[in-house]
Specification:
It is built from 15 helices and no strands. With about 400 residues, the protein is mostly helical. The radius of gyration is 22 Å and the shape is globular.
């Protein structure tokens, strides 16, 4: 695997830590800036919305740039937004920096995925995707707890400084490892052609399935703390360990899926989705048993991110003529799920259905994802006869011309 792919994973690690670290910093931000906890919570929502909207917009804006230039620009804006955020005395500026950082993060993600795939042979594409996505899982294991610890010791601003400082080595390494611009490094397909390619039913269904799978993942992940403390019966001191356990499972799942999905991507997705649906239901039923709950948290983390990695690879496979925008739409689908899942889980939790409710919502979302996968399979079975008919017609036409 080229060293540059691992550098992309390092940059994604820093950006992933920034996306999720606010969960442990909200109280400090609210007190320091004299705003409510709800207002501080909007900083997380602003980042998610910026990721969803920014993914296609930044990809369109930078699609004609050489990849190294685009990566360095987006990462540079990301670093600057965190420096300004760490220095600002006002909530409004901090909110603006979260949106700016999210836009830059979205653009970087889209270009990073395309760049990683371009640097490896076709049979290693899933593994390269796993290395990039693995940065997010490492952020869950190390970055998020570290950010909370820094906020506790030296205030929330220190976590922003840490993200900026970790991003600087990645910036310098990208400058050194990513080749400079060349005619083959710039988009050769028009934006209109790429957008037209992204309108295919099979690709749209794949993106929908991906959003539902991520929605199920983040629905339970966002509410693991009350599940662990109020249903499983573990003390609050266990919460960081449980979150880290989920992250360890995620990293293992991404790594394993990257090695299997190149050969059998369909099998990884199918088995992973069925197992996820069953696993969320099992966690909802057995959450009161500490051994079962901890085992399932580890397993579901592995299944969720392993299946998600394979789905990202399928997006690129189904949009070979939209190399730039395919990554941005995959990024947007990921973050639609990351925003949708916690919102739905909060609705059911607030409605009084109990602390197991978000886990049941995750199981329901996975059932919807399986229904979407079934529709995708039916669409494929319908498209195959059409493709065979078109091929036969073309062959007959050529034979008639030859005669």
């Amino acid at each position: 695997m080229p060293f540059a792919v691992h550098v992309l994973g390092l940059a994604v690690f820093a950006q992933g830590a920034s996306e999720f670290m606010l969960s442990g910093l909200l109280s400090g931000i609210a007190t320091d800036l004299d705003v409510s906890l709800a207002a501080a919570g909007l900083l997380t929502s602003a980042f998610a919305i910026g990721m969803v909207i920014g993914a296609p917009l930044t990809a369109l804006a930078g699609r004609t740039w050489p990849r190294r230039r685009a990566l360095l620009f987006f990462l540079g804006v990301f670093i600057a937004s965190h420096v300004v955020g760490a220095l600002t005395p006002g909530y409004g500026v901090l909110l603006a920096t979260r949106v700016a950082g999210a836009l830059a993060n979205a653009g970087f993600w889209a270009v990073a995925l395309v760049t990683a795939l371009a640097m490896v042979e076709p049979h290693l594409r899933a593994r390269a995707t796993a290395v990039v996505v693995g940065g997010v899982t490492v952020a869950c294991v190390v970055g998020v707890p570290a950010g909370a610890l820094l906020g506790e010791l030296w205030g929330w601003r220190s976590a922003f400084w840490a993200v900026a400082l970790v991003s600087v080595p990645a910036f310098l390494a990208l400058l050194w490892t990513i080749p400079g611009g060349s005619p083959h490094d710039v988009a050769q397909v028009s934006a209109r052609s790429e957008l037209r390619a992204l309108g295919r039913p099979r690709l749209l269904l794949t993106l929908l399935v991906m959003a539902l799978v991520q929605g199920a993942t983040f629905c339970t992940f966002s509410y693991l703390e009350p599940l662990v403390t109020r249903v499983t019966g573990l003390g609050a001191g266990w919460v960081p360990a449980v979150l880290a356990l989920f992250g360890v499972g995620s990293f293992a799942g991404v790594t394993l899926a990257g090695r299997i999905a190149d050969a059998r991507p369909g099998a990884v997705v199918a088995v992973g989705m069925v197992a996820l649906a069953a696993g969320w239901a099992a966690l909802a039923l057995t959450a009161g048993n500490p051994v079962a709950a901890l085992s399932l948290v580890l397993l579901q983390g592995a299944l969720a991110f392993g299946t998600g990695t394979a789905l990202i690879t399928r997006v690129f496979h189904r949009a070979p003529d939209a190399p730039t925008l395919a990554g941005s739409f995959a990024t947007a689908a990921f973050n639609v799920g990351a925003a949708l899942g916690p919102w739905l889980g909060g609705l059911f939790l607030g409605a009084g259905f109990g602390f197991r409710a978000p886990v049941w919502v995750s199981a329901l979302l996975m059932c919807l994802a399986l229904a979407g996968a079934g529709a995708l399979s039916r669409e494929r079975s319908r498209s195959l006869p059409r493709a065979l008919h078109d091929s036969s017609r073309d062959l007959l036409h050529r034979a008639e011309e030859g005669a």
